[in-house]
Amino acid sequence: MKIICVGRNYAAHIEELQNEKPKEPVLFLKPDTTILQKSHPFFIPHFSSDIHYEVEVLVRIQRIGKHIQPEFASKYYDEIGLGIDFTARTLQKELKDKGLPWEKSKAFDGSAVIGEWYSKSDFKDLNRLNFSLECNGKIVQEGNTSNMLWKIDELISYVSQYFTLKIGDVIFTGTPSGVGAVAENDILVGHLEGKQAFSVKIK
How many domains does the chain divide into? Predict the structure, then answer.
């Protein structure tokens, strides 16, 4: 399986990082070694002390697809989740400034939290999902999928133009504003439409 991540999909997050608004989705990949095993803590890596959380709505692909049209994209997934794309922010900036790929800052071991999966039929409208991230009991990120620049079905269609989607692939759909650095002993808890999707301790 592969993890396909979408960058710059919420206008407020683009503004907070002073990035340029893209004309089409920004994509990058994480290998399966980035998946943080359930109930395991996240260890701040030795190469960076500036690790940021980015909470995101996730989609798990359940059939093989290529060149999927937006009107048929909903047939390719049944489950929605919530996760974190951990980012080594200072390292990412250094790489971006040099025009180099982001992988070292985005695709390191354990950098992808994948929470519980829920049937998409549990939700009334996937384009109006509320989600949030708490750090030590305080809400630090809040989002709603209505604020996405590109909606879930549009993303699936776009991604499939470049990568064949396979069963079990996961799409991270982008993060809202409010990203910030983690510290040892922080507890991060994610909620999707009132459901607790994950809890992660930082070490």
Answer: 1
Q: Show the domain range for 154.
A: 3-201
pLDDT above 70 for 71:
yes
Query: At which residue do the structure tokens 């794309």 appear?
Result: 85
Structure tokens at 140: 């630090």
Instruction: State residue 39 phi and psi, 5-degree precision.
Output: 75, 0
Rounded to an integer, the average pLDDT of 74-91 is 98
pLDDT band at 19 (very low <50, low <70, confident <90, very high): low
pLDDT digits (tens, 9 = 90+) for 138-166: 999 999 999 999 999 999 999 999 999 99
Q: What is the CATH number of the domain that holds 191?
A: 3.90.850.10
Question: What tokens does 131 get?
Answer: 């989600």
DSSP codes, 55-71: EEEEEEE-S-BSS--GG
**CA 99/CA 9 separation, integer angstroms:** 21
Alpha-carbon 16 to chain mean position: 17
DSSP helix/strand/coil, 199? strand
| Consecutive H or E run containing 15 | helix 11-16
